[in-house]
Amino acid sequence: MSSGKSSAWVTSADVARHAGVSRSAVSRTFTEGASVAPETRAKVLKSAEALGYQVNMLARSMIQQQSNLVGVVVSGFDNPFLLSLLGPLTHQLALRSQAPLLMDASEPEQLSNSLRQLMQYRISGVILTSGTPPIQLAKEYLRLRIPVAMINREPLLEGVDVINSDNRQGGALAAEVLCRAGARNLVFLNVVTGTLSPSARGAAFAKALAGQVRRGAVKLRQATAGGVSYAHGFEAARQLFAEPSARPDGVFCTNDALACGLIDGARALYGLRVPEDVKVVGFDDIPMAAYEAYALTTFRQDIGALAERAVACLAERMGAPDMPSRTLELPVSLVERRSTQIPSIESTESAKAPVRRRRLVSPPV
Amino acid sequence: MSSGKSSAWVTSADVARHAGVSRSAVSRTFTEGASVAPETRAKVLKSAEALGYQVNMLARSMIQQQSNLVGVVVSGFDNPFLLSLLGPLTHQLALRSQAPLLMDASEPEQLSNSLRQLMQYRISGVILTSGTPPIQLAKEYLRLRIPVAMINREPLLEGVDVINSDNRQGGALAAEVLCRAGARNLVFLNVVTGTLSPSARGAAFAKALAGQVRRGAVKLRQATAGGVSYAHGFEAARQLFAEPSARPDGVFCTNDALACGLIDGARALYGLRVPEDVKVVGFDDIPMAAYEAYALTTFRQDIGALAERAVACLAERMGAPDMPSRTLELPVSLVERRSTQIPSIESTESAKAPVRRRRLVSPPV
User: Fold this and answer.
1) Is the domain of B57 the same as that of B205?
2) Where are the beta strands (DSSP E) in chain B?
3) Which residues are in the HTH lacI-type domain (chains A, B) (predicted)?
4) B284 and B310 share a domain?
């Protein structure tokens, strides 16, 4: 395209020819700060419209000093929940004629790259998803006066809107579900990442159990996995289940991938049964949670609503950059499956689980 | 930003002030076809450089009629293999100072939206991932003279580079692995999508088995799942295993999600054991394939190489739009896990599987 071949793009030369004006007049019409006679400008705009030149976002972006491109910053690409946000975000941005520019902030070079890109493309705004690293990044955007919205982050920065799932609601409900299922020796499986939603879930879980813990009816402790993935959950099983006399009978995991790993570790390493020996609750409702091998009770984050609200907040902030920060907490839904095995509770079971049965078919591997 | 607030962006006015020239001179320096005296131009460029104005990609894009934005077209966001491509693609594009503009082609409105965006942003090229629908879309891009590269698609269009995993190699190896594991009553589980990689895998599988089928040493039939997901695999288990006298003892599934569903269906619905009663092979090596509950033998597509080659082919085609089409076939690696249980074969086991053991710990659910 750049090698001088003919192109199907309508160029300013085409518009000039059509309008009967000079090419420079066309350029000046679309150039910030350039002077052009009103009737020339009108001719140019009319021809531009007729030829389909009117939709040159690059030209428009230069004039408006913004591009309708929105940076979507992801940290790594191995978190199934984060990936599930990309579809709804792309859709919501398209509804506003905005387009998502994908950026990876998992490595320092990528990070500085993404910042440079932002400056180059006069990006209209940035959506930071959970797991993206330092608050530093958001501060850089703010310094450049680029509007920022964050999904599932702690609301720590003035001038940034935060759209979260209601972690406290989930944590409290997890306590209720595990206790109703008969678990009395409970563990919250935490992670050591910088994002704070795990702590919010754990704090609400502990708060909901505080009375029973005081009365001695329930035991509660916290364990920490080495990371957020399936493999970390599998390893955490050693930590929790190696000592037979100290095994918990109920575990609330801060996300589903950890929970799936923990279940497999409990089964494969110690022959434990879920839910008979240990009940497990996750968070996120990733696709694997509905897999028959896990049938995991979990909390579904409303990814459609998270995306919709994030894009809407960003759009509002583009129009009014100095509005006060907002924090939204969107409700989560309890999805009960066999990992807590309570047949009689009112259920919001997902249609994703291909088969729902009350009795367990014992599946020998 | 657009509301007239002060901005950290360096504007043409800043450059004009710094260079001691008119704002119009700055504009003309960066405007396609506008005339400007060489010494003025030099002053402007020097100030632009000093102030950090030199990296305005929008200006440069207008001049070059392209943007360094590359469209990455995905069809839906529910295929774990496709999502795993996004990381490497983003990384490879960044190495060439290009940025991925994410587009969803799963719905007709999204499709036309994405086309409009392409035209608006003077996109430099497009990468179509497998699963994106009609060849029609690629034709539109070609008509607009936008370079196109496709990943895992049949090479049907002149002027389009195609980067595939070697499906024939995988299909032939799947036959070998299943036969070595002792399976004699084989099924290829196909899907009905428009993409042709499943057929290539099935055809190579059948070809590798042809001699044994002729001699009556092996039986082979094909079954068709209703779609590519876990739930479709689970349903396919009814088709394959409902009739005890006709059960296959080896199944090659066209992707891993199907294979995981099939395994769970075989276990939960019919109490079958994998691999004792039925051996299963998948394709893709998605994260779930390494999960202890599946421990699925599969073929790892080299997503890093697929992304690298696609971005490189696209870059070459940008420089030479009329070069002949190329089709690349990248080798896949066999990853042997317990679903075909052959302890003695040389193995390319993934480090992802947290535990590798020869003997099976029976995990009661």
Assistant:
1) no
2) 69-74, 99-104, 125-128, 148-151, 161-165, 185-191, 219-225, 250-253, 279-281, 298-300, 327-330, 333-335
3) 10-64
4) no
* B172 and B296 housed in the same domain: yes
Nearest to A127 by CA among A361, A267, A317: A317
> How many structural domains are present in chain B?
3
Residue A338 lies in a domain: no
For B39, the domain range is 12-64
Q: Which residues of chain A make contact with B287, given a CB cutoff of 8 A?
A: 78, 80, 230
- Minimal CA–CA distance to B73: which of B62, B52, B58, B89? B89
Residues A285-319 pLDDT 10s: 998 999 999 999 999 999 999 999 999 999 999 88
Interface contact B34-A33, CB threshold 8 A: no
Complex ipTM: 0.73
- Residue B337's pLDDT band, with cuts at 50, 70 and 90, is very high
pLDDT class of B170 with cuts at 50, 70, 90: very high
List CB contacts (< 8 A) between A69 and chain B.
101, 121
Q: How far apart are the CA of A284 and the nearest CA of chain B, in angstroms? A: 15
Rounded mean pLDDT of chain B?
A: 82
User: In this structure, are B219 and B238 located in the same domain?
Assistant: yes
Same domain, B173 and B227: yes
CA distance A211 to chain B (A): 32
Asked if pLDDT for residue B353 goes beyond 80, the answer is: no
